[in-house]
Amino acid sequence: MRALEAPYAALDPETVLDAVDEAGFLSDGRLLPLASYENRVYQVGIEDAAPVVAKFYRPGRWSDAAIAEEHAFALELAAAELPVVAPLARGGRTLFEHAGFRYALYPRRGGRPPELESPDHLAWMGRLIARLHGVGSRAPFRVRGSIDADTFAREAARAVLASGLLPAHLEHAYLDRSHAVADTADERFAALAPSRLRLHGDCHAGNVLWTDSGPHFVDLDDARMGPAVQDLWMLAPSPGALDGLLDGYAEFRDFDFRELDLVETLRTLRQLHWAGWVAARWHDPAFPRAFGHVGEPRWWEQHVQDLGEALERM
To answer: Which residue of the set 21, 150, 183, 202 is catalytic?
Structure first.
């Protein structure tokens, strides 16, 4: 998970505009950075047309083949009339390269977060996720990997230990608890043997935008193989909300209710993975600025304590 130091230092506004022009769009010079840490994302004005969104992939994270799978999945979902913001193609290509950066272009789509206490919104989202999973079950990802203990716990722990952020007096407890989470997750997945399908992978409220015509999904950057419940639990702020999502889901697809026993495991893996993600990217200047609290010993003390409590719940 270790990232290149300052990977976007050479990505200046001129480079962004030149990249958009090179892909076949004529930019008008307007450039607006959008919130993103993993990648760099910009809204770019286009002459006599709607703006586009340019997404510059973090160097070293995904292979070209993995990005191609992400794009193909998004286009497959769009072809199935699911409201997904899919990449724009030019000359049969959706992945471009300029000045050493790989990037994709998307139509601009606005919206507001879903109301996750609204029964109507929850049922609507449940129906859409079921349809997304129907498409996701047609074929597997070959290279994008899966949601599992190796990727989300063991690899994350290695990144934390390599970063120098973890205080020395916490290393023993962190190692014990992160290893225990990984081993327990392996056991839970083995015991339940859930079906694995192509997922959105990071289906939280920030990746769903709602308009007067309904919701649409954005950002498939974390799409992986995994159990269906992964795309549901992050949208449920309460057990009642999860019930609402599942009511809508059941209208289009059967749900294996044994997967509900994985929610605490998936939640804990996400905690470990987030810490590893930040640690691996600490050399990117954007990360200490945005997550300065992660550089403080008290944050790691709380993280290790949280892992212990999560193990008890698991």
So the answer is: 202
- Cα gap 291→300, rounded to integer Å: 13
219 is catalytic: yes
Q: For 145-165, what is each residue's pLDDT tens digit?
A: 999 999 999 999 999 999 999
Quick check: helix, strand or coil at residue 144?
A: coil
Burial class for 145, CB neighbours closer than 10 Å (0-12, 13-18, 19+): middle
CATH 3.30.200.70 at 13-107, yes or no: yes
What are the extents of the domains in the chain? 13-107, 119-313
Among 148, 219, 221, 284, the active-site one is 219
CA atoms within 13 A on the CB side of 131: 18
Residue with tokens 């003390």: 301
pLDDT at residue number 95:
98
Among all chains, which residue has been given the structure tokens 């990249």?
19
